[in-house]
């Protein structure tokens, strides 16, 4: 604000700076989409360790490819991840002219419970449901007691205890719960943060009588695991959630492409794959277990690839189970279109020890391992370094399902298929760094994974770091400020070794002046910023030339 001088003397005025620092975005937040025995199905869950995954989704599971992929991700250096659990919440509509499936595929459901007071009570029952679909909810146990400070004849509150017997006794206890829905201690408000149950259909009442409570439709469990060690107060039975068949939770049949897409309105409702629209950012997308489903697996890949293109992320694809080397070399994904440059595939699959099966060998896709290596390389070397080579060892992998020779690797690499290769002294490593447009016949500028990922990093960082430009006066003062800030960001990358060139002038160029902002674009409200850079290309082929020198005769 300009100063209005009123007295003789010195005045200090702080002027706004033209510097608006552009911060680089994360590069290795991985998103995993797949099945799990438990966990949220309506939103992505952000985790920073496999312990977080175990707490939310139940840990490793024999039927869950995603659980093992996340485990391998953290084994190989991963740090942050977004988890999207997919269940069969609905069946795809039957196509015209086709018979309905027989039997009808089973849907995933949540376990439910109805707790009522003594027989003849006019109080409404308390209806609870497990927070997510699956058989896990049938292992929940719920108990009401009235061990409160109120006199028995004047009791208006109660205590609720919930135990998950499947996880070794995770327990939640809520004290002095009010049956009044408007109270700050009403059950609906208290259970808002519960990891086990929720109030069903907004039901928020409970009989305030201190009689033992059971279940209206299910059995009462005689033995009380919530023993009152004080020897005082009122006792109550605890009740099994989902005790009857019609209210039991179920995993349902395996989800199909229809469920991965979130149904017919997945993007609009942010369901299935499109739950990731609720996240701020992710950089790597993995679909463990999705490839090979009977309901048009290509449609999952196609939709996921387009989604990655829109969100400036990369898609890592697993080779299908049982795929041969010849098939891998010939595999194409024409439906991906422009999204091919944002995708990469690795061959062969891997064999890993399965901790829940006494470390017996388990065949798995490599996406979790590779995503972890990408994350590890970003931290140690930078996103511009190819996540491949002798440094890119596969941690936690016993062996590859097929050990390739150098000649066999040579059949895959020119076709844009990245090999997992066993090297003497180094073991199993990633031995390729090409995108799906890396086929030599295409001669595409986005041939290499590190080049594409560096470009996506720059694009996303500049997109977020130049939001302040919108609605600013479109003239030279704005252009010079843009050049200053974008140039500082690019120069920082140059000093870290992200570009080719010995000088900044050789490595990058930022243009924002009259040459690319003529008056007609200014009149349209457009400001053009052109950023060019010279990316580092990986040294795929090291050629050593050896020559014999003829013996020299000295006279």
Automatic annotation (TrEMBL):
InterPro entries: Phage_sheath_subtilisin, Tail_sheath_C, Tail_sheath_structural. Residues 213-223 have a biased composition (Basic and acidic residues). Residues 204-223 are annotated as: Disordered. Residues 279-436 form the Tail sheath protein subtilisin-like domain. Transmembrane segments: none annotated. Residues 443-547 form the Tail sheath protein C-terminal domain. It holds the Pfam family Phage_sheath_1C. Belongs to the myoviridae tail sheath protein family. This is Phage tail sheath family protein.
């Amino acid at each position: 604000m300009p100063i209005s001088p009123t007295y003789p003397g010195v005045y200090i005025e702080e002027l706004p700076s033209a510097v608006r620092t552009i911060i680089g975005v994360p590069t290795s937040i991985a998103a995993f989409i797949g099945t799990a025995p438990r966990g949220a199905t309506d939103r992505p869950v952000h985790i920073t360790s496999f312990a977080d995954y175990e707490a939310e989704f139940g840990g490793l599971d024999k039927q869950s490819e995603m659980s093992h992929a996340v485990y391998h991700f953290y084994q190989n250096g991963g740090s942050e991840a977004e988890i999207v659990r997919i269940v069969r919440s609905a069946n795809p509509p039957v196509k015209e002219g086709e018979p309905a499936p027989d039997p009808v595929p089973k849907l995933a459901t949540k376990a439910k419970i109805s707790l009522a007071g003594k027989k003849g009570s006019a109080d409404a029952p308390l209806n609870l449901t497990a927070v997510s679909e699956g058989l896990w909810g049938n292992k929940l146990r719920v108990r009401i007691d009235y061990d409160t400070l109120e006199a028995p004849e004047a009791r208006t509150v109660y205590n609720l205890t919930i135990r998950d017997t499947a996880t070794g006794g995770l327990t939640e206890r809520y004290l002095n719960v009010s049956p009044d829905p408007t109270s700050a201690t009403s059950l609906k408000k208290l259970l808002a943060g519960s990891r086990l149950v929720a109030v069903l259909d907004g039901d928020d009442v409970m009989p305030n009588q201190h009689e033992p409570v059971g279940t209206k439709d299910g059995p009462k469990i005689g033995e009380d695991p919530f023993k009152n060690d004080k020897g005082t107060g009122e006792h109550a039975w605890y009740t099994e959630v989902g005790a009857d068949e019609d209210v039991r939770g179920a995993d349902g049949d395996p989800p199909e492409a229809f469920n991965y897409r979130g149904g017919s309105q997945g993007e609009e409702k942010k369901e299935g794959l499109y739950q990731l629209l609720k996240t701020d950012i992710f950089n790597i997308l993995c679909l463990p277990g999705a490839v090979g489903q009977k309901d048009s697996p290509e449609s999952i890949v196609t939709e996921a690839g387009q989604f990655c293109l829109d969100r400036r992320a990369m898609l890592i694809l697993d080779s299908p189970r049982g795929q041969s080397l010849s098939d891998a070399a010939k595999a194409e994904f024409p439906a991906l279109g422009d999204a091919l440059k944002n995708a990469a595939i690795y061959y062969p699959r891997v064999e890993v020890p399965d901790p829940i099966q006494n470390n017996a060998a388990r065949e798995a896709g490599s996406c979790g391992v590779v995503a972890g290596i990408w994350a590890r390389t970003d931290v140690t070397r930078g996103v511009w370094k190819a996540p491949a080579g002798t440094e890119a060892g596969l941690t936690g992998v016993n062996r590859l399902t097929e050990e390739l020779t150098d000649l066999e690797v040579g059949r895959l690499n020119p076709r844009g298929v990245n090999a997992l290769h066993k090297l003497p002294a180094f073991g199993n490593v990633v031995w390729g760094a090409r995108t799906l447009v890396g086929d030599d016949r295409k001669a595409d500028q986005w041939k290499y994974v590190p080049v594409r990922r560096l470009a996506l990093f720059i694009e996303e960082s500049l997109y977020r770091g130049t939001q302040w430009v919108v609605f600013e006066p479109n003239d030279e003062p704005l252009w010079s400020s843009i050049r200053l800030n974008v140039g500082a960001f690019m120069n920082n990358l140059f000093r870290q070794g992200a570009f080719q060139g010995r000088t900044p002038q050789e490595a990058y160029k930022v243009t924002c002046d009259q040459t690319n902002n003529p008056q007609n674009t200014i009149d349209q409200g457009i400001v053009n910023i052109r950023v060019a850079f010279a990316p580092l290309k990986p040294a795929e082929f090291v050629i050593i030339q050896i020559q014999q020198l003829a013996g020299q005769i000295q006279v």
